[in-house]
Amino acid sequence: MSGLVQQPIKTPSLFVSALLSTTSPTPTASTLKPSAMPTSLTLPLPAVGAAVAASPVTASRVATPYRSRPLRLVATPAATASSSPSTSTSAVSSAPPSARHSRKHLAGRDGAPSKPTKPRVFFLDVNPLCFRGSQRSLSAFARWLALFFAHVSLRDPVVAVLDGEGGNEYRRRLLPSYKAHRARGVGTGADSRVVDVLRECNVPVVRVHGYEADDVVATLTEQVLQKGYRVVIASPDKDFKQLISDDVQLVMPIPEIGRWSFYTLRHYVAQYKCDPTADLSLRCFMGDEADGVPGIQHLVPGFGRKTAVKLLQKHGSLENLLNTAAIRTVGKGYAQDALTKHADYLRKNYEVLSLKRDVNVQLDDSWLSTRNTYNDTSVLSDFILQFNNEGRS
Question: Where is the segment annotated Disordered (predicted)?
């Protein structure tokens, strides 16, 4: 029987499949016909930003949105498909080295080797994953973590970051409404259990007193980029969009479909029609209702996203725009009035919404090592079992 040779990878644990209630059938030798297998096949990678779904037997990096050209995969003799994860993995690994493909040797339509991509480092924003809606939920955290390990990060380095004690205080002094409606932390007992699980899965945990996780991630991202790595930030928090670039992207949990989905520079430009460098300035005008930061439209009806984008495209940044508006007219009357009368208001929003890059935290080179995934199955299984025994959701 012939098949497409896949890069050897660690298959997700059976408990992850059970946890996600995956029902799609697993192909076996009896369901695959040799006559139906082509001798060569051109397959496009999934669209950039494709959601990462659970698979009952194999996990791969096909959801990684760094290559948009189709790949030419040539069928070679491979082991017979098996419903056993261990059998499938060992069989594929035994294929001749010349028959295996890696990122470094994948070819495009022209047959030329593709440019090797930089290694990735993941930052896991822990706090938002510990909630289901507005309610604390460690079972939600366990589920997202299982999906993340099995289908997103695989063996790439992962650094988990939590909010430090009093991390919101600086911004609340500037703007009392900032996250005033949010629950503070995930609870002392729950917090300890989360940290224990992460460390047992060989994930370093970082927390800096007086700073939010967002600021710590932004600071560490700068340090990782300087070492020649790409960064993927795993978080639903849109504050991180101001960091997006060619080498920084997000992967976001989507509760509606129960999957992680990549969000890249291309997605940002398609959604907002501007460059991420203007994201922070744009949000100063629009505000952030989820974080309790009011936008200027509450003060100046009619001053919306379209007006803000147009002005920022011309002047580049909020500060440039405000400085220019102070000496000459930059737009229609209502826009000019808004910029001159509410300049301090907009500058305060900027200070509240901007992520700090100067937190006193230093990247440890050991955090960039390939993650040992040996404990994942047993640790997460035990963690899930605790909730079943305690009757928690």
Answer: 77-117
DSSP class of residue 234? E
Q: Domain 276-353 adopts which CATH fold?
A: DNA polymerase; domain 1 (1.10.150)
Q: Is the model's pLDDT at 225 over the cut of 70?
A: yes
Spatial neighbors of 229 by CB under 8 A, at least 6 apart, are: 118, 119, 120, 121, 247, 368
Closest C-alpha to 67, from 46, 43, 53, 40: 46
Amino acid at 336: Q
CA distance 310 to 234: 31
Q: Could you read off the pLDDT of 134-178 as tens digits, one per residue?
A: 888 888 999 999 999 999 999 999 999 999 999 889 999 999 999
How far is the C-alpha of 194 from the C-alpha of 319, rounded, in Å? Answer: 41
Q: Which residues contact 230 (CB under 8 A, 6 or more apart)?
A: 66, 117, 118, 119, 120, 121, 247, 248, 249
* CB within 8 Å of 8: residues ≥ 6 apart: 89, 92, 93, 100
Going by pLDDT thresholds of 50, 70 and 90, the confidence category of residue 237 is very high
Q: What fold does the segment set 120-266+359-390 form as a domain?
A: Rossmann fold (3.40.50)
Q: Hey, how many other C-beta atoms are within 10 angstroms of the C-beta on 219?
A: 21
Contact 249, 232 (CB under 8 A): yes
Across the strands, what pairs with 73?
41
Q: Which residues contact 217 (CB under 8 A, 6 or more apart)?
A: 123, 125, 161, 233, 235, 240, 355
Furthest CA-CA distance within the chain: 77
